[in-house]
Structure formats: structure tokens, C-alpha cells
Amino acid sequence: MNGKRDVEEQEVIDDDDDDNVSNETEEIGAAGNDTDQPQSLQIQEIWHKKEILESLNILPGSQELQSLIAARDYKRVLSHPNSSLTGLLLASFSGNAELLQAILRRSMVVNVRDREGRTPLHLACCAGSAECVKILLDHKAMPNVWNKEGVITPLHCAASVGNIQCLKLLLDAGAILDAGLTTTGFGKTPLYYAVLSNSINCVEELLKRNASINTSQVYTETPLHVAAAMGFASCLKLLLDHGADFRVKFGTAKSTPLHLAAEDGNAECAKLLIEAGADLMSRTNRIQTPLHLAALAQSVQTLELLLMHRADPNAEDIDKRTPLHCAIVKSSRSCDSVQLLLQYGAKVNAPDVFGYTPVHIAALNEFPNCLKLLLDHGGDVTKRTNGNVSALSFIARRTPEILKYLERKLDQGIRLHDHEIGDVDCEIKLDFRVLVPSLSSGIFLDSCADFKKCTIPMSFRYVSYVLLVCNFSILGKELFQIAHIRRGYIYQWENWLQWLIILAVFVTLVPPNWLSLKFVTWQHHIAVFGIFFNWIELMVLIGRFPMFGLYVQMFTKGAVNFGKFLLAYFCLLAAFSFSFRMLFPKYPSFNSTINSIVKIVAMMTGELEFEDIFFNSEDPLYYPGTSHIFFLFFTLIVTVVLTNLLVGLSVSDIQGLQTSAGLDRLTRQVELVAYMESMLFSRLLNWIPKKILRVCHRSALLLSSPRQFTLIIKPNDPREKRIPKELVKEAYKCVSERRGIQSPVLKTEFITNYFERNRFPHSRHEIYVSKRKKRNK
């Protein structure tokens, strides 16, 4: 074995490995970067080789021993008085296993330290020398020794250089797997440094031995944060597959792993996190979403990935800036990012807290191409900042070349509408919408005046008085109907509905300070029913119109049949309700009898929630097997059979109503007319002056005398308006068919058509055209 190698030849931690260990710093979206790949990060080792050498150089006899080791004079090294301290540390750091073995034969003190508390085992792991590590462990070196600051063990060093052999030797020797997980190590475990060095083998080995992926400390940097920030997709996938928590936030910025991946512009890492279920709307301390950071990083791939998974393109940060504001930061890729955000509905005129819109920012940064894109998507140049400076002012000062483009855009509002340019009838359309600012600008908001003695708005008080007057009017009408109809009144369900509305209005309008606080809550319950009954009554009134009567009757018929349907099968629904309550005692929808019945009715519509019930990790099934059988029975019997039966009944009822639609419409009209006439001729109205009653009777009756049974109409008289024109046409057609005349046409229609065909010209242009036609003939 050629073990005689000098210190310079044994510097395992060389300059090429500077990118394997710790702190990440990044310039987000540096100017001129035209790629979507993660940008290079400045990484530091646990201990830089210069730092270690400086510490070793101040040890007693260090310079002399280094010269002897360089000259391969190991005999004099062993005889040197400082070989047991300085020589041991130098041999470990240089990875010189032969010299290390020789020193340990003479001195059994293996756990010596330098001024920073580093032992030979620390230095051997930093050098990545598995042979030296094995020799030290065989001589009882402590695998769990900490450095002076109490944050680094040899296992940290082995993980940081990504040496799987050293890692396994230390773990087999009893090294603490999660060293540094407590506050002493600030949450930086060997797994943390293995991920930081992007050593897949070390990460797999640590995870295989059940290393802790997550930490209980708040806002601590986890290995998942490191993998996302560095863009190490393979390590990220390993951590996610082993249950790493992607919701943990890190540092004062409160960034999630998805924030760090978006900030780095790493689409692959972002995709893995999104597929694992990361929240796209998670916020940092500046209320920024991952989409904001992806826009700042100018990563088109990451932006598209987030937008495809429905990230909000109009989310606002602490300064009310949207991702579109953030995208206009660099000229190299800004247009691509801006165009993508606009395609997904980003608001082009959204102002930030200072009143700056994306158009303002593009003009200030002198991005003409980006400005054209914003203007093509409706950018408003009249928008003003809080300092009352319009976007057009910025454009004129910073990007004057856009003024010509804006002028051409305004000219597009003038275009040919009809006929050719040389034609006499040529028409040009002027579209002034390009000059009109958006409807959202110019809105003035002001707070209402405060009323110290009254907490109810004044407008509500006036509306309440109007509502009381209307309610008393309806009450008077109902009392009149009771006095007029008496027995028949109680058999009409609409009358009961109106009484419920009257009572609900009176109870709701009682001032709250007249009642106790407990009763005020009931006011809200009653108000809900009152609002519902009012709109039901409005639907009934709309159903009295011939045009809408059929549809309201269809609804009424269907509702009645559905009530009968539920009553007939209520026992079946109750059976499933009580069964599910016993089978799923912890499920919120079945925690009470009422909730169970309501849930069963809702499940009839298809709201089964199979995954939430049977695959809930927090609340496992108590009675597997039986639960599956009853759920299957419910799906087949209720959701399939009963629902299809209900649909079939509704279809048959609708078909029956359609066949008798005409007769039903006439029946409703006759009932309404008879009801109105009976009230108009009621004895209860005898107190009204007879002249007024006579006028009302004459306007309501078609025949003025009870002894007159015929009505003479003039079908060709356009002033005939006593009966509808449709009835006049049908009567005229009936008489004409009996007289043998085909295709009868009323003279009123003939006269109208004649004047339409032979109307006289009125305008000068029409007179000129008619004269020219006569000359041509």
C-alpha cells in the first residue's frame, strides 16, 4: 500500500467541491438570463479547507511536522514530541492511513482536538477517507463527539462531502442519526447536509435508517427546503416519497418549499411539490404566492405550470402587486412571462398600493415590446398613480417610440362600415371606445356619516315603513276575502302562505331593543322563512300569467309527487340513516339524527363522498366489511333505483301536463276571472259610491245588461278592441269557411299591407330616388 503521500496531495476537500455544501444565496432572475434552469448558487462547506489549515498551523510543531510529512519522513514524525496531537490531526486531515495507524500504535489518545473542537474523526470525514475513519473507530474514537460550538458531529461531515462509506461506518459504530435536530444544532441534521451536497446515496441510506425528515421547531429549514431551493429534484422526490411535510414554512420570509422552487425557477421541483399537494396560494411574510416569485424569476415553465394548476394570476401581495407587476422586471424574458399571464386572465390595469399599474412599470423600465403587449390587451394609458401621474406621461418621457404605435391603435377606431369609399351611400364608423377609460377608474368612495344614537341605517328605516304599509294592505285584502268567501277560504293553500308572510313581516320588523337578546336570534330565523315564502308567493303570482302558468303547474305537481314519494319511502331512508350513524360514528354528517337524515337525502343526488368516508387516514373505519355492504346497498337501492323512479314519475307527470296544457290554462283564467268578478260584485263594497261602482262594473263586463246575450264586433274596424285580436281572427275565419271563402284576410290587415307596399316618400333622398326610377323607365 502506497500510504506515503504529502499533505498537499491528500487535500480531499479541493476547490472543485465548493458547490457541495451549505448556505444558498441566489440572484433571482439575473439580467440577461435566457434559460429556465436553476441559477448557480453560492455554496459553503461546513469548514472550508483554509479554515482547517489555519487552525492546524497554530498547533505546536505544526510547520515542522508538515515538512516532515511532505518529505515522507515518517520516522522523525513518530519521534516528534507533538506527534500524538498535531501529527494525529494532520494525518487524519490528509487521509494518510499508514501514518495514522503508526501514530495510534504509539499513542492511544484518539480524541484529541484543535482550537475549534475538531477531532481526528471530524477531519477524516471531511477528507472523505473511509480507511482513516475505520482506523479511528477501531481505536475507540467517539462517533458522536461535537465540535466546540456543539453543532457538528463526524456524521455531519461525512454527509456534507457525500461519502457513503464513511457514513455507513459511523452509523454502524452508533452515530446518532438525527444529531442536531434539537435547538443545539438549529435543525441541521446529517440528512440536511446530505441533501445539501446532493448525495443521493447518502440520502437514501439515512432515510432507509429512518432519519427524521421533519422538525418540530417552528420556521426551521428542513431538508425539503434545501432540495427545493437548490433545485435537487432527485433528492426532493426521495424526501416526498418518505413523507416530508411540504407545508412547513422557513425563516422570517415564511417560505414553503414551493416558494423556494418557484423563486429558483425550477419547474421540475415545483411540479413534484404540486403533485404532492402543495398549496398554490400559500403566502410568505410579504403575502406573496409562488406565482409572484416565479414571475420575479422570469421562469416561463414554472409560471405555466402554476397557472395550469389554477394559481390565481390576480393574487395581491402586501403592496397589492399582482404577478403581472412582478413579471415586468427584466427585458430579457419579461414579454414571455407577461404574455403567459395575460393569456390566463391577469388584470392589465390592476393598481398597486401606490397606484402603479403594469403599464406604468413597463413605461418606467423602458420596455417598449412589453408596453405594446399590455396595450393590445386593454392597457389603460389614462390610469393615474397616487401622485396623479398618468401612464401616458411615463410613456411620453421614457418610451416615446410607443406614441406612434398608440396613434395607430387609436386610428383603428375609424373604419369603413358600409358600401365603398366612392359610393354615394358610403358609411364610416367611428368607434370612440378606445378613448373611453375603463369602467373601474374614476370611482369615488366615501364613508357614510356616523349616527351616534341609531345603529340602523336611515334607508332601512324608511324601507321598513313602506313594508309595514304594504303588509297592512295585504292584511286588509285577506280579511276581505275571509268575509266574502268564508268556507272556501281555508281550502286554498295560497291563503295560508300569505298569512305566514304577514306574520313573518310583523315579527321581523319589531325593533330589536324591544326584545331580549335571545329573541333577536329567532328574528333572523323567522326572517329567513319570510323571505323564502315571499319568493314562493311571487312564483305563484307569475304562474297566473298564461305564458308561465304551465311551468309553475309542472313545478307544483312535481313538488307534490316528490312529497308523496318521500313519505312512501321515508322508512327506507330512515333505515339507512340510522345504520350509517352507527357504522360511521365519527363522521361529522352522521353525528346526529337530523344530520343523518339530511345527509341521506343529499346522498340521493349523488353526493356519496366515498373517498372521504372510507379512506380517511385520521378517522379509520370502525366496522369494515359491513360498512362496505351497506354503502353498496344504499348506492344501488336509493341512488340508482329510487332516483330513477323519481325521474320517471316526473317525466310522466310533465307529459300529462303538456297534453292538457291548453285546458289547464283556460281553467286558470276562468277561475281568476270568476274570482275577481265575485269580489267586484260583493255586497261588502256597497259602501262605495254607486257611480264609481257602475264605472268599475262597466269596464269589467263584456255585456252591459244581464238581458243582453250577444256581442256584435266589427272585424275590419281597427278600433275594435273589446276582445283580443286573436279571437277576432278566429271568428272571421270560422265565418269565412262556412261561406266557402279560402284564406280569408281581414281588411285591417289588407289596408296595413297596402300602405306598407305603397307608402309615400317623405325624405328628399326618397323623392330623388323615385324620380330617377321614373326617368329610367
TrEMBL record:
- What GO terms are given for molecular function? monoatomic ion channel activity; phospholipase A2 activity
- Record bears the keyword Transport: yes
Q: Where in the cell is it found?
A: Membrane
Q: Which Gene3D superfamilies match?
A: Ankyrin repeat-containing domain
Membrane disposition: Multi-pass membrane protein
Q: Where is the composition biased (Acidic residues)?
A: 8-27
Could you say which enzyme class this protein belongs to? hydrolase
Which residue intervals define the domain Ion transport in the entry?
A: 469-659
Q: Does the keyword Transport apply?
A: yes
Q: Give the GO cellular component terms, alphabetically.
A: cation channel complex
User: TM segments?
Assistant: 458-475, 496-514, 526-545, 566-584, 629-651
| Disordered as annotated region, ranges | 1-38
EC number(s) in its UniProt entry?
3.1.1.4
Q: What protein does this entry describe?
A: Transient receptor potential channel pyrexia, putative
- Species the sequence originates in: Pediculus humanus subsp. corporis (Body louse)
List the gene name.
8240380
